[in-house]
Amino acid sequence: MTRPDKMILGALVSPASSHIAGWRMEGALTNVDETFEDVLGVVRAAEDAKFDFAFLADELSMPDAADSILSRDPLAYRFEPLTLLAALAVATKKIGLVVTQSTTYNEPYHIARKLASIDQLSGGRLGWNLVTSYVPEEARNFSRSEHLASVDRYDRAEEFLEVTCGLWDSWDDDAFVVDRKQGLYFDPSKLHRLNHEGKHFSVRGPLNVRRPVQGWPVQVQAGSSEAGRELAGKYAEVTFTAQNTLEAALAFSKDVKARASAYGRSPSSVRIIAGVQPIIGDTMEEAQAKYQELQNSIHPEVGLARLSQLLDYDVTKLPEDAPLPEIPDTENYKSRRALIIEMAKRENLNLGELYRKVVSAYGHRVVVGTPESVTRELAEWFVAGAVDGYIISPGYLPHGLEVFNETVVPALRGLGVLREEYEGTTLREHLGLDRPARGSWTRK
Ligand SMILES: Cc1cc2nc3c(=O)[nH]c(=O)nc-3n(C[C@H](O)[C@H](O)[C@H](O)COP(=O)(O)O)c2cc1C
Fold first, then answer.
1. 212 in a structural domain
2. How many angstroms is it from 223 CA to the middle of ligand 1?
3. How far apart are alpha carbons 85 and 335 in whole angstroms?
4. How many domains does the chain have?
5. Nearest alpha carbon, ligand 1 atom 20
6. Ligand 1: does its nearest atom lie under 6 Å from the Cβ of 243?
7. Distance in Å, CA 221 to ligand 1 centroid
8. 312: in domain
9. Does 437 fall in a domain?
10. What are the two backbone dihedrals, phi and then psi, of residue 299, each rounded to the nearest 5 degrees?
């Protein structure tokens, strides 16, 4: 498998914008006031620009903060993403649809069945962003007092994936003969019971939904810790990551591809896709002014509370001009936390400067500039082989995506790094990934 010569683009369809204060901008989606048509409009705009996929992120709890802080945070509201995705699947035609589902707070049979159904509904356009959940509060919504340790979450995730792929392989692709004359609904020789007995799961199967159009939905993995990278190297077809410098992105890409090779896979079988928040203006001054308006709209209490969440360490009682204290190791958000601590040290940032820098885009790269400079910066990482593409996470919707589509998309096409048209119909075809044969999943 070779590396695609065109950049992959995903659009984050974040309920209330990807900048933490984006919802406060005039005309921004808020997740509360708009209709399904408004959300569909965003996804259709991404489809018109030939994005490979739209991405719906998810968490299974609201942030843990005092009501006075929570009441200023748009992440207090998250529409259930599979429900939204099912509606988007039938209202769009070509764009891939990637959704987050946690392996820590679900059962494999549920996930296999729901995702197989949505892959059918969408005609083979589904991708599963497998996460192990990093927010400790999620535990308390699922009858547990403690979040599982990182190593245990990833151990469960690996077996979870084995079971879901096994369930998707319950049927040969041509098992359902629907022979009305003979009264034969399916060919019994083409049905396969799973009979899985493992450390975490005991699942007999078979799945009561036919094999997904894509064989298995595209497997996306979004953890960047040691265990996350291992899982990506072993199985992921796409890995999402947050990277802030070209050097770090190159090192990440090299590392994940080396892990894939070590497991006997082609290094280019894992597509590396980084989150990025573009803030675009006609001039550099206009772009900076837009960014400053967003940054100045971050309420300090929300900023410090979100920073505490990302660090898994409470800094809300500290003054903004204090330096970042020594932070103990955590089980919850290893990779993003490490990235933020490293950034604070490298740039010598106090807490106020740090939260403004990282919470705006949840630690993802922010690119502020003119269409030309943003295009140049995005193309640079792609051409250097640090990333295969991006999840575009505009400051706020729909405005940020409209500007990106009108200005940067044609400029990237002008450079020859972005596709002009969809060439296939499934997400696998968009990404240049093979359709897996039934029974080909093996534990590595
Ligand atoms: C682009 C991107 C999107 C992500 N989306 C989600 C998400 O929707 N829900 C979630 O719980 N974690 C999400 N994550 C976080 C990771 O999946 C993972 O849980 C987190 O990085 C902690 O694991 P780690 O320590 O292995 O990195 C995302 C990460 C990236 C880079």
1. yes
2. 5
3. 28
4. 1
5. 223
6. no
7. 8
8. no
9. no
10. -70, 130
**Ligand 1 pocket, 128 CB below 6 A?**
no
Between the CA of 199 and the centroid of ligand 1 the distance, in Å, is 24
Query: Residue 98 pairs with which residues in a beta bridge?
Result: 55, 127
Backbone angles phi, psi at 10, to 5 degrees: -115, 155
Domain membership of residue 268 (yes or no) is: yes
Written as one letter, the residue type at 102 is S
Q: Which residues are within 8 A (CB) of 149 and not within 5 positions of it... i.e. 6 or more apart?
A: 331
The answer, yes or no, to whether any atom of ligand 1 lies below 6 A from the CB of 224, is yes
Residue among 52, 53, 61, 100 whose CB has most ligand 1 atoms within 8 A, to mutate? 100
Atom number, ligand 1, closest to the C-alpha of residue 57: 8
% of residues, the chain, pLDDT over 70: 100
Question: Do 105 and 133 contact (CB within 8 A), yes or no?
Answer: yes
How does pLDDT run across 234-250, given as a tens digit for each residue? 999 999 999 999 999 99
Q: What confidence tens digit (pLDDT) does each residue in 312-355 have?
A: 899 999 999 999 999 888 777 778 888 899 989 999 999 999 99
* Chain centre to alpha carbon of residue 2: 23
- The enclosing domain of 96 has a CATH number of 3.20.20.30
> Rounded to whole angstroms, what are the CA distances from 27 to 41, 361, 396?
14, 19, 9
Pocket test for ligand 1, best of 75, 85, 128, 134 (most atoms within 8 A of CB): 134
Q: Which domain holds residue 69?
A: 8-276+378-431
Whether residue 133 has its Cβ less than 6 Å from ligand 1: yes
What is the C-alpha to C-alpha distance for residues 276 and 252, in angstroms, rounded to an integer? 16
pTM for this entry: 0.95
